Amino acid sequence: MLITSVEITPIAVQDPPLLNSEGVHQTHALRSVIQVRTDEGLTGLGETYGDDQMLVWLRAVARKLPGTDPFATNLLMATVTEVMEELAGDSANEVPVGAGYPMAGAASSKTKAAVFSAFEVACLDIQGKALGRPLHDLLGGKVRDAVPYSAYLFYKWAEHPDAPYPADSWGEALTPDAMVAQARRMVETYGFTSLKLKGGVLRPGIEIDTVLALHDAFPDYPIRIDPNAAWTVDVAVEVGQRLEGALEYLEDPVGGTPAMAEVARKVSMPLATNMCVTAFEDIPEAVREGAPQVILSDHHFWGGMRQSQVLDGLCQTFGLSLSMHSNTHLGISLAAMTHFGAVSRSLAYSCDTHTPWQTEEIIVPGTLGFENGAVRVPDGPGLGVELDEDAVARLHEQWVKCGVRTRDDVTPMKAVHPEWTGETPRFTSL
Length: 430
Ligand SMILES: O=C([O-])[C@@H](O)[C@@H](O)[C@H](O)[C@@H](O)C(=O)[O-]
Ligand SMILES: [Mg+2]
Known about the structure:
Elements: E1 3-14, E2 28-38, E3 43-49, H1 52-62, H2 73-88, H3 109-131, H4 135-138, E4 146-148, E5 151-154, H5 176-190, E6 195-198, H6 204-217, E7 223-226, H7 233-242, E8 249-251, H8 257-264, E9 271-273, H9 283-289, E10 294-297, H10 299-302, H11 304-318, E11 321-324, H12 331-343, E12 370-371, E13 374-376, H13 389-402, H14 410-416
Parallel strand pairs: 5-6, 6-7, 7-8, 8-9, 9-10, 10-11
Antiparallel strand pairs: 1-2, 2-3, 4-13, 12-13
Helix pairs in contact: 2-3, 5-6, 7-8
Family: Belongs to the mandelate racemase/muconate lactonizing enzyme family. GlucD subfamily.
Keywords: Lyase, Magnesium, Metal-binding
Protein name: glucarate dehydratase
């Protein structure tokens, strides 16, 4: 079986005004849909970031794939490496990459891992379809039947000042009470049994009160807070100490492994990250420093499903735990996340997902869903999801019209607060 063509479709989905330490989500979030077709009539699906820079990289690799074997993912890695190194010397190919992603220039190992991942997932989808086996079987078989996700809570505005569509149904959430209401709705709708609060938005004292209010309202629920490095070490230590007994882990309170280790020595809960350990080359320092103790996997930037399994193995070797990070994503990504969650042996926590914040979808309804806060692991061939081609066409049209081309949470915040810089750490006291 050989690959005959690869289609990369940029799409834009409506995104609510969710707040984080960098600023606010744009009116639209960008994704790329990858369709790899073969001479046996099979199509493999992938989904990843949709920034202009990512599209340049994806298209350059896509051009090289016709004529290659979808089972040859080692060869795919060699092709990605070669293409990215060629692109690296050419400044026309260096568009700034969107905020929130750990990628640097074309030649960096993190970028190669992210680009490879998009195609690896699509090739694994083809392999599973060819063999009539679910993707998790290609990774050694599932160790759980359903993958638990957490309710991802965000402080938010009621609406974007400039959205070309009506406000979302969640309303404003800028107080502890409003956050408890948001959590209740998420728990009632999806059955989640753990909570993640995106912090780094309000004064740390208010965020402490928010976690305590959530803890009072959901006393048996594991809770985590993630301010994306918006705090100094002193603030992080104080928050960690005040929230003793209320947090399962503290995620990226400060930036960089040495600062994380300093905080870890003074608080009782483990520290988690998707910011200072985002590639294999970051692991030795974390092991030497003894923190962070929880690594958030993410197949989109750790180099796909099999490299995520390597990470899983390293976590076992070095006594680290695994959780899972998410960025705004749709159903192909959720399916891939769920297959990895199904085979991971170090996964010790509910995974992150932005799913509840999306009102638009690219997979046929009913193929993937939440039950008691978990997604049942798809057992159909490959990823086990079907693409809704009409939805992709509509969301591509939306991409053409919306004008958003790179993720940038700073500029829309600056439009409302001109003094905003998005720089971290932002908070030097409670
Ligand atoms: O969606 C967001 O605003 C998140 O802050 C996202 O960009 C982060 O990458 C992520 O969810 C995280 O855990 O840091
Ligand atoms: Mg995080």
